[in-house]
Design goal:
Number of helices: 4
Helix content: 25-40%
Order of helices and strands: HEHEEEHEEEEEHEE
Number of strands: 11
Strand order of the largest sheet: 1-2-3-4-11-10
Amino acid sequence: MLVLLTGSAELLAARLVEERISDRLRARIGDNEVDLDGSALLALARGRLNAATVTGDSARLGRIDGATVDLRLTGLELGGSPHADRIRGSITVPPEAVARALQQSAPGLAVSGVRPDPSSGTLVITVQGGLGTLTVRPALSGGKVVLTLDDARIMGRPAPAGITSRIEEALRGQSARQTATALPLAELRVTSGGLVVVLSADDVALR
């Protein structure tokens, strides 16, 4: 009986701690799941957890939904001013999620698809049902993912200056509407799987 009671208490404690951490991160990255290392009962007694892993495939980066998150948090203080001694990991935004974000925030571009080009660190965006292509370069700025235009073509030929200016204006508007994640975004990479944003920081507040 004592073993059963102890086991039940540990499960309840684990759920409490996992929900507490998940709630702290939900406002920043959306839906997530937390798995603890070690005893939750001991962590509550000490007010400190050694480590936790945060995952999810319906997270967000700013206003871009549909991202995959994989984070490792170590040295978590669970008291009145919760923080992590260290956060390491990544958020991956697939091409289709980038396309949806552009369709919603910059409808004038009429985006129909996005293809990553890891060799150049750019995204090739198909617009107007394939009539044109935009090559944009993603970067991090102030906790946001911003897109700048490298090249614009219509039926394979360089787009006129007037059209290029309107595209650049639309991309600036899309970047301005993005919200900062309030997480330590350290690096952005373009991979075949989309945009991979690396998180790396020490002593991060989880308020």
